[in-house]
Amino acid sequence: xQVAALLQRIGDRAGITVSLLCGIHCAALAxxxxxxxxxxxxxxxxxxxxVWYARLELALVLLAxxxxxxxxxxxxxxxxxxxxxxxxxxxIVLLSTVLVIEWHASRWLGPGLVLGGGLLLVxxxxxxxxxxxxxxxxxxxxxx
Length: 144
Prior knowledge:
The chain crosses the membrane at residues 20-40, 52-74, 86-106, 112-134. By secondary structure, the chain is mainly α. It has 5 helices and no strands. It has helices at 2-34, 36-46, 51-79, 83-101, 109-143. It starts with a helix and ends with a helix.
């Protein structure tokens, strides 16, 4: 049981971190779209192909999904509450939708959906960690 609790705790903390990174990346992408000539110039200057930005987004979504599955799944095994899992799933759906439909060309819709998905994941992980901590406290009180 200790290993599952540790994995759940690490999963939630890593999920919060990755979701926040996803939101920061989204805000930076919205800024980069408005400054596209500068991005194009820096690509020519530094030789960084734009395909790496798409790979970074895919990697962030996959990491967010992995940490959501681990953190929220193991949390559910402990507290049996569906709320954090539903919020996390909604966040992953929003993030995946943007990648699949490629709404990045839209100035506000793509970044807005990614930011919303990232925020839903952060809220889900914080809610999950809170429910697990409350369960831990109530179990400790019951032992006394």
